[in-house]
Known about the structure:
Layout: H1 18-24, E1 32-37, E2 40-45, H2 48-69, H3 73-86
Antiparallel strand pairs: 1-2
Amino acid sequence: MQVELTRISEKGQVVIPSSLRNEMGIRKSDQFMVFGGDGTVILKKIEKQSIKKTFDEMAKPLREAARQSGLTKADIQKAIKDVRNAA
């Protein structure tokens, strides 16, 4: 892992050093998730496949729990409809 120094601008912008941009293939308009806490900020480059993978990883245990409980797509659609109508 490469370590570089940078600063934050008056507008709150952070420059990612060119050596890291080149190494990681970061291009203009790339998007990032930003995580923060306890004095640490982490940027995670978003790639279309990684979003799908992350969603699939999160949804897998939920899908399995739904299967085990006997829920059907119709049950879920009805529940969504009921909640929307109650609002």
